[in-house]
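REQUEST FORM: STRUCTURE PREDICTION
Request ID: SP-0412
Submitted by: Lab K.M.
Chain count: 1
Length (residues): 206
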Amino acid sequence: MRGVFCDIDDTLTTEGRLPADAYRALERLHEAGLVVAPITGRPAGWCDMIARFWPVTGVVGENGAFYFAYDQATRKMIRVFAASAEERRENRHRLTELEKRIVQEVPGSAVSADQQYREADLAIDFCEDVPALPMSDARRIKQIFEQAGAVAKISSIHVNGWFGRYDKLSMTRRFASERLGTDLDAERQAYAFVGDSPNDAPMFGF
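STATUS: Completed
RESULT:
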């Protein structure tokens, strides 16, 4: 075993909190010399902090929009995105229009509280900071994204939508190649993934 990739929400966390024993487990893996990398739908702002302060090798965020890795030797944050800055700006305009439609058509849904820290996607809250909506509403949100040509994934708390051909697995492969010097397809037996939600499906499928 060379490393562990893991989701964060409802995998490392319990009822929205990161227990000390979960954090200590990450620390023990890191101290043992294993690669540790959260693979999450959480935003760039959070991922910058995670890459900088947690006992991890790096983090893939916003469902594969980027990976961040902090180089302790040079004291620099390495940020690699699937889309260019210009593409992300253009996509943001399209997502802003979708945001208006979704919250209007799915009463009770809301833009996620962490949206202002996001670089590439739109997160719609259906049960984190709003009264829990039925899964049928989450599927309706996903459908609206897809009707507009976006990719959409349901997590345990949000529906995330974005424009671009990437997901958790594609960016994890890139992270492994560029930061670990590893071909995941050739070394898949050496790495484990732990997750819990439909947005983890690409990783489970691998």
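NOTES: Strands lie at 3-6, 35-38, 59-61, 66-71, 76-81, 110-111, 122-125, 151-154, 158-162, 191-194.
Reviewed by: T.R.
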